[in-house]
């Protein structure tokens, strides 16, 4: 097993400070690139790097300052459904033909200007169209000399030709892309014809693909619907172009979305209504174009499905808890109240037991001695309270005259009556 090469941490170019302590302290961050593994490319780099004391080797690195921006790839570029999609890369990389040619900290004659690369359709992000193959020379001759064609080879309108609905009505059976396609005449639009592919979603039937062709004076205006969303609008000039359009739409792989039954719409917040759309018995993301690369749902629908499922599950749990909340909450509150009352009763029982124990230990002589120290009225009140405790009941019990007088005075509400009793000794 070959030992891994230990790369340098600073730029190899003369006068460059990338990777050194001064650049790190200044918070200057630049991407660095290793030398190519190919011997020929390595020699080309060595010829361009102006350093005479040391030769560029496989341990050296060069920073992004020494390359033209066209050689630095900062994004992943994909063509999805005819559109260029760019995703930022975590780390930039170099193209295969990258050459270091910019050295700002050296004399200007050492920086060599490279010839500009000729732009192509793919470099501009355009999609190359498929060329139609001609199997027979006779077919080519017939295409060139057939007077019934409404368009020329470059797609321009032939003077004098007309676009009518009657020409489209002959597109039946074998002229359609497959047996699942059908042609429909519209009652409220006599100048339009719809070519449809239907699909069954549960109890409902919806249009999976629909091409609406409106006949105008000079062209056919075609609007393409995929899963209920407009994906294309184009003007064509003959019936053959309409047939080619139908074949291209037939090859499209449509997004399958996700079932509406798994996510009840009544359990979703109103704020999420702007994120999805319904077609048939399925849900689709508003960002879904209706097409995908394979039979699975597109990435927008897959990313939307999980949050909607989580929200519907949360609403379901919340509704179930709300129905059982009142009864369970009342039961819990009554249980807590019962425990508090039982605790109070137990405390009172303990206090009463202690009082009985202390009273039984108190002798009669000690009680009389303690009562003799009290004032006369208080002593009378205490004795009156102790007497019922020694009896089985208060029925037939006799009270002293002084105690009765005190009770009568306590029931009085006027000051004049109380003054009369106070004057009597």
TrEMBL record:
Keyword DNA-binding recorded: yes
Keyword Zinc: yes
Limits of the THAP-type domain: 7-103
Chief location bin: nucleus
Subcellular location: Nucleus, Nucleoplasm
Residue ranges of coiled coil: 338-365
Cellular component aspect of the GO annotation: nucleoplasm
Ranges for region Disordered: 104-129
Top-level taxon of the source organism: Eukaryota
Family matches, as InterPro entries: THAP1/10, THAP_Znf
Any matching Pfam family: THAP
GO MF term list: sequence-specific DNA binding; zinc ion binding
Keywords annotated in UniProt: Cell cycle, Coiled coil, DNA-binding, Metal-binding, Nucleus, Transcription, Transcription regulation, Zinc, Zinc-finger
Similarity section: Belongs to the THAP1 family.
The name this protein goes by in its record: THAP-type domain-containing protein
Source organism: Rhipicephalus microplus (Cattle tick)
